[in-house]
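Quick bug: Histidine kinase output formatted oddly.
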Amino acid sequence: MARSRFIKYVFPAIYGLIVYFTIRLLQDTESGFRFWNRPLLVNALEIGLSILVGYIFIYMINYVCDLTDRRQQPGDKLTPSLLWREIYMVAGLSIILVNLIFTPIAAFTDDGLSWSDLTSINIVPLLYVLIYYGVIRSGKFLKAYIEHQLLVEKLTNDKLETELKFLKAQYHPHFLFNALNTIYFQMDEDVLGAKKSTELLSSLLRYQLYDQQQQVAVRQELEYLENYIQLQKIRASQKMRLNVAFDEQLTDQQIYPLLLLPLVENAFKYAGGKYTIDITAKGTPNGIVFRVYNDTPAQIKPSGNYSGIGLENLKRRLHLLYPDKHRLVTGHTENSYTAELELNF
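Here's what came back:
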């Protein structure tokens, strides 16, 4: 606030005084005259008019720049022709103004108007005007560039946020369909089990809907997976051998939610053969290593290596959320599939 007031109210007066004393310095150095030996009223008049000219110059330059900017359409670049037109306008107005004010004063004071006086009166103000114009226009260029970069960054962030929300939403329908299908068949045979499944589903949906906007503690993500696994066990084959081991050191480390789910989801979806599923999560000095192994039916071949929407979305989310900070390795053999995800927080 203080800086803007200084630039608006004080700086133009200083600018006018600098122009005036530069002209006096050049003229007095050449003639050997000392302007302070003149009548005080003449000096006061010249100084006062110089200050007035300073305010006019500053207003004029800002007005010309603003006028050009207002005529530009949003996003248009200032072309060299427009810049030269601005420079010509500023230079022309400067020459007109000083010859209207300073030239008559020089003609009726001291020893009259000389070629030296006329040269100093026109060139010195013009040089200061062009310097100030260059500073102002450069400042406007810098401001416009920063605003453009901020806008680009905001649009990029908005696009990424929208894309992340879309990718997250794609997990829900498939999972919800399977869960509701399980509860539907439980209703005929195991009402208590159906109630328990409904509670688990409610907990999972609550986490998906309300707890995924920011990073969460790893323990919350692992608790979510445990509930998901419990729900999947209900509809899994009785032959399934499930081993789950989560590192107790994984507690408050921060992680983006729902990144581990697709790997577990695929394991239950494609489990077969000996129906073994191993799910482990281990802490590392910089993050977490999450590994899922499952047996697969013999008819599933490597060419169909789980390249479904779940893993494709996971890869895209990892690229957006953990650029250069993740490693996802998958491997398919004749009767097993392994996926290992390493995240660096």
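Actually, after a second look the formatting is fine. Strands lie at 216-217, 241-246, 254-255, 276-283, 287-295, 326-332, 336-344. Closing.
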